[in-house]
Amino acid sequence: MAWYILRRLLQMIPVFLGATLLIYAMVFLIPGDPIKALAGEKQLTPAAEAVLRARYHLDQPFIVQYLHYLKGIVTLDFGTSFSGRPVRDELERAFPITIKLAFLAVLIEGFFGIVFGLIAGLRKGKLFDSTMLIASLVIIALPVFVVGYLAQFLLGVKWGIAPVTVTGKASIGELIVPAFVLGSLSFAYVLRLTRNSVAENKSADFVRTATAKGLGRRRVVSVHILRNSMIPVVTFLGADFGSLMAGAIVTEGIFNIPGVGGTMYQAIIRGEPPTVVSFVTVLVVLFLLTNLLIDLLYAALDPRIRYA
User: Fold this and answer.
1) pLDDT tens readout for residues 51-84
2) Once rounded to an integer, what is the mean pLDDT over residues 169-177?
3) What positions belong to coiled-coil segments (predicted)?
4) What does the CA dihedral 257, 261, 263, 267 come to, rounded to 10 degrees?
5) E strand or H helix at 142
6) 215, 246 in Cβ contact below 8 A?
7) Which listed residue, of 75, 176, 207, 234, carries a Cα 20 to 30 Å from 195's Cα?
């Protein structure tokens, strides 16, 4: 197991380098001069402009800038934004909030999607199955911002059972409704994925063999059907965690959540490439580590998989 983890970590290095190089190039090689954008309508003196270019290594070749950027990542020194604020402070403030939001969304979509998908798969072709399929199609057809504004209006404004916006503390209670909104689309996919996988495994040979041996229905469903149906679902949930963190900008904007999405949006508006690049880089690292964790969970779900 330890050698497998080490090998996977080594495999992540070229992926990380390639992703960060692409991100860095896309952000810093776009048309325009960030120093002049920082000055706005004011005219910088040549001396002040030279100081700013030297501070952000903009007076050096692209590859040298990228190497300085990698050095900062290794030493956890993400530099400062063009507005003078340390990027690390922004990371420490925004990421815990978005991780908490994305984790709640994955729990909600995973729990309800698996439960409803399991019941629908076991009752394939019946009323509950048809109802869940129609409901999931409706959820997929609705954009996230529509679901968000509806939830905000109904639960927050009209009925008053949930806060309209999230405070700076971003407690669990305040994030429940945004997590439902953020995970609504993925919930529909988890439901349909679980339903199809359960319906397929329900008629598999190993299930018929377990039933013929006299095993109870609860054990057949929980151990043989559900466990073998979870591999594609776990794969989707693992990849979805990174997608939820990157795609939380709409939900965070609706509920005024000071997380990664809102911070990146403001950084793009203000023209702060160091902040954007640092945030996306951390998202890449979290995505790679999440996929490693999912690979390790395969061995727990499928006894045929062994990491030697």
Assistant:
1) 777 777 777 888 888 888 888 888 887 777 766 6
2) 85
3) none
4) -150
5) none
6) no
7) 176
Query: Given CA atoms 292, 241, 273, 79 in this order, what sign does their dihedral have?
Result: negative
pLDDT at 307 over 60: no
Q: Is the pTM of this model over 0.90?
A: no
CA-to-CA distance for 268 and 263, rounded, in angstroms? 9
DSSP 8-state assignment for residue 126: S
Residue 112 has what pLDDT? Answer: 94
Q: Which of 136, 306, 124 is nearest to 229 (CA)?
A: 124
Give me the torsion for CA of 20, 24, 25, 31, rounded to 10°.
Answer: 160
Longest C-alpha distance within the chain, in Å? 85
Q: Report residue 32 as tokens.
A: 């325009």
Retrieve residue 307's tokens.
Answer: 């990491």
pLDDT at 82: 65
Q: Which helix (H) or strand (E) holds 88?
A: helix 87-122
Identify the CA nearest to 95 among candidates 248, 263, 260: 260
Three-state DSSP state, 259: coil
Spatial contact of 284 and 16, defined as CB atoms under 8 Å apart? yes
Q: Strand, coil or helix: what is 61?
A: coil
d(CA 298, CA 235): 9
Look at 298 and 94; give whichever has higher pLDDT.
94
DSSP letter at 86 equals B
Tell me: the pLDDT tens digits for 198-254?
988 888 888 888 888 888 878 888 878 888 888 888 888 887 887 788 777 888 888
3-class state of residue 80 by DSSP: strand
Q: How far apart are CA 101 and CA 122, in angstroms?
A: 31
Residue type, 66: Y
Give 275's contacts (C-beta < 8 A, 6+ positions apart). 81, 87, 90, 263, 264, 267
